[in-house]
Design goal:
Length: 63
Amino acid sequence: MIPLIDRDICTGCENCIEVCPPSAISMQDGKAYIDGEFCEECGFCASNCPADAIKIEFPLLYP
Ligand code: SF4
Ligand code: SF4
């Protein structure tokens, strides 16, 4: 799943940009933005966000 960034929580620290292997994240109006076309769904951005602004929603096995 491509991560979702909560723009209200994102502080614009750019940590996620530095750890994203395919450089799929950029800054837009001071907040992080993920280009889904390039995201490889590794989750590094979410685990390296100090503000916990990036969420990955896993599909439910037993909906
Ligand atoms: S999940 Fe991985 S590839 Fe996708 S935006 Fe985050 S760090 Fe980049
Ligand atoms: S690491 Fe988190 S707080 Fe920092 S720019 Fe990325 S989404 Fe925003």
